[in-house]
Amino acid sequence: MASTRQPNSIDSTAFAGGRTAAAPAGSMRHLLIRMRRRWQLYLLLLLPLAYIIIFNYIPMLGAQIAFRDYTASGGIWNSEWVGLANFERFFNSYQFSRLIVNTLSLGLYLLVVGFPIPIILALSLNQVRTLWFKKTVQMVTYAPHFISTVVMVGLILQMLNPRFGILAQLTAALGLAPASVMSKPDLYQSIYVWSDIWQHMGFAAIIYLAALTTIDPALHEAAVVDGASRVQRIWHIDIPGILPIATMLLILNFGNFINIGFEKVLLLQNPVNTSVSEILDTYVYKVGLASPTLDFSYATAIGLFKGVIALIMVVVANSSVKRLGQESLW
Amino acid sequence: MSILRLPSIQRKSGSSIQESRGDKVFSWINYTFLTIILIVVLYPLIYTLSASISAPSAVISGKVILFPVDFSLVGYEKIFSYPTFLNGMLNSLFYTIVGSSVSVVVTFMAAYPLTRRDLPGRRFLTVLFFFPMLFSGGLIPFYLVVRDLGLVNTRWAIVIPTALSVWNLIITISFLRASIPDELYEAAQIDGCSDIGFLLKIVLPLAKALIAVLFLVYAVGQWNQWFFSLVFQTNPDLLPLQNILRNILILNKVDLGMMADIKRMADQQALQEQLKFSSIVVASVPVLLLYPFVQRYFVQGLTIGAIKG
What we know:
- The complex is a heterodimer.
- Chain A is mainly α.
- Chain A folds into three domains: 1-30, no CATH class; 38-83, no CATH class; 86-323, MetI-like fold (Orthogonal Bundle), CATH 1.10.3720.
- Chain A is 72% helix and 1% strand.
- Chain A has a two-stranded antiparallel sheet.
- In chain A, helix 5 (85-92) packs across helix 17 (296-323), helix 6 (95-114) packs parallel to helix 11 (185-213) and helix 7 crosses helix 11 (185-213).
- The longest helix of chain A is centred in the middle third of the chain and has 29 residues, at 185-213.
- Chain A is flat.
- In chain A, 35% of the residues are buried.
- Chain B has two domains: 21-74, no CATH class; 83-254, MetI-like fold (Orthogonal Bundle), CATH 1.10.3720.10.
- Chain B has helices at 2-5, 21-52, 56-60, 74-80, 83-115, 122-130, 139-148, 156-159, 166-179, 182-190, 195-206, 208-224, 227-232, 241-250, 265-307.
- Chain B is 70% helix and 0% strand.
- The longest helix of chain B is centred in the last third of the chain and has 43 residues, at 265-307.
- Chain B is mainly alpha-helical.
- In chain B, helix 14 (241-250) crosses helix 15 (265-307).
- Chain B contains 15 helices and no strands.
- Chains A and B meet through helix 2, helix 3, helix 7, helix 8 and helix 9 of A and helix 2, helix 5, helix 6, helix 7 and helix 10 of B.
């Protein structure tokens, strides 16, 4: 490590001389000296480290209440140990299969529809030669990304309102009866997914647009000289050009697809659609924090079950990205 | 589409390479496609803006289609004379300013040491900071920690537990690595500059733009957050704007006292619907004003994080 040359050179040269003779005990001392020299960096890390330990690692220890019967008096460490009872209760409950189906189907729907659309948008934008038009489309399609989830759901409800809103006007124009789509459980997932695409497609396209700019223009010039059409150039140059990043994102999204943005799921819920809108995360919240009998242990067990599956999926996804020779998540 | 895939090499003699007919058709389709997308994204936004400045009765009877009908600012008048809404706005302002400041400071305190190659244990520490992205103890154990710290029903429940975003930490680290070469550290050390001195005198001035945008990104997050307030704050006086909006927009809970001067039930209903549009506008305008600045950074951040690796 050449960069560790220090201003207090007497110290370091003296030590460098003794280094060859010193055995393991010496390298330990060496490490301590190097650490002491960087004490200011550790001082800086103190606060963020405390933060991450308190709000991330202590909850990981706290997750052990999934294996206990949590009581206020016993707390995390002294409540009665019940082993896998909470998990068994969940696996045997009538909610189990429904929650799994709802979570997986919503996540998969979002992945299957939400993955290709930003790519199509980016490829399409990349073909635009009129700069002001391209900039306008980009500006407008990025904007909804910054709208809050609460406002977004409010907007959905207003747009789909059976009395006014765009849907009411469309049905009226077509001479149909006004439809109350929010009270149709069958449509819940579609409303969730397509409004998500409306909100985020422009933003998700950014990464592909950036990847498209890294493609060597000489490829396109050569193709033009050879008489390739635009479609052919998209097919044979643009798509192969963004394929590596698209593959990586697909795998990472797949690893992540169980982690659905549950705030929006919760906000879009109403008494009519809970049979399809209840997913693992919202159920954890309801059991643990929003029911008359707060069952911390049971809710934690469900959360832990999901967290472990999510971890396995992300790790598998990331190692497959690595196997493909791409930059991985870590 | 099948026509488009045919090789359409049609060169006119004498002239240089021109757009073939197939390409022109493609171009036309492409512009149409993007125009449709533009309209689909823009329409709800324009509709909301128009509805917010139309007469409530025109909104609820579906007369507003694109442009405002019977111009009226009654929705804004009502929303700005609604104490709960104003209080929520002040709370949001507090959470946004204080929360984002704390976040920026904490993010830099973590990011700077983690970019120093001569920090013993850097790899271990980096993993320690990044691992929570992959696995967490879950909502309930997190809630218990915040509760046991005595933060529930205080303003700090919103500011402190969300202080550090690992994603922003990663972006800050890769920015610092890309923009501050190791040689600079070495040169400063030879001149006797301490590690903290280096952060204050060299890193922070070089990272001014990053600080500004990091602040904006955290600010957008804080302004838009509602779930932590739902969980940690039962005292309505502490709730931020988003939770007030949730009552108005989604739960249809509006304090009817503010409509006391309106006698007819139908008018009250109309106003309640129109209030939704004006409150959407009021809550979203601050963020959409910031967005052109934030957007550029996101593009850079995403590019640094994903393409250059």
